Amino acid sequence: MIRGLGSKLIRYFNTNPKLTAHLRQSSGRDILVGALYHQPKPTYKQSALLDHVENCVDALSITFPEASVVLAGDFNSLGSDDHISRCALTSIVDQPTSGTSNLDRIYVSELNYANVKVVTWAVKSDHQTVVAYNGPHKSTYNKRRERCVFRKRSPTQHAVFLEHVSQARIELQSDADAQSNFDDMYAIMKNLLDRFYPEQQITVSSTDPRFVTPAIKAILRRRID
């Protein structure tokens, strides 16, 4: 979804497999918005699709040399480097949109959008919605919260742990079988982990940036408090 263009629709170009809309801003600037869907298991060659996209971008750029180009859609396994190198377009989506994969992307010829948000659909879907817009920050009303378990680690904890294990003696039964010794060793290690690095819980939300892990969220929360 592209917002904040301040534009009106002029016409559509049906350039299969890409549908392009010609928009015009109130300032008179032309914007060409293309939609593309790349199949997970295509019956066509990926190189042929890239050739077609490149030819379409070139043709539209000749017809509208001052226009800004936006290409958005579900690109699946199509690599970002191909579009950047062949069509001179830049991806503005840097967050996963389907699980841990960045399948839904927006490519632009000019960096015209100050904000890009990845939000969850109001209906059940494997994909999330990408919203690019200008203007004030917009809140997400359907964000999801989740309680996550993590283990805090600090230099002090490491020092205490190393001091303890330097003096500890771990003895296993010489006449026991390998499985019994493994179970005993695992229980000892788990006990040390729980003792010096106990589990903690913290709430993370779907609007947190992807680099904000539970451990980082705990650090940020302590600094805020």
Quick structural overview:
This protein is of the alpha+beta class. The protein contains 5 helices and 10 strands; from the N terminus they run βββαβαβββββααβα. It folds into 2 domains: about 5-135, 4-Layer Sandwich (Deoxyribonuclease I, Chain A), CATH 3.60.10; about 155-195, no CATH class.
How does this model look, in words?
With 225 residues, the protein is an alpha+beta fold. It folds into 2 domains: 7-133, Deoxyribonuclease I, Chain A; 153-197, no CATH class. It is 31% helix and 28% strand. It is built from 5 helices and 10 strands; from the N terminus they run βββαβαβββββααβα. The strands form 3 sheets. It has a 6-stranded mixed sheet, with helices on one face. It has a two-stranded antiparallel ribbon with strand order 7-8. Strands 9-10 form a two-stranded antiparallel sheet.
Protein topology:
Elements: E1 7-15, E2 18-25, E3 30-37, H1 46-63, E4 68-74, H2 80-87, E5 90-91, E6 104-108, E7 115-119, E8 129-133, E9 145-151, H3 155-167, H4 178-196, E10 199-205, H5 214-224
Parallel strand pairs: 3-4
Antiparallel strand pairs: 1-2, 2-3, 4-6, 5-6, 7-8, 9-10
Helix pairs in contact: 1-2
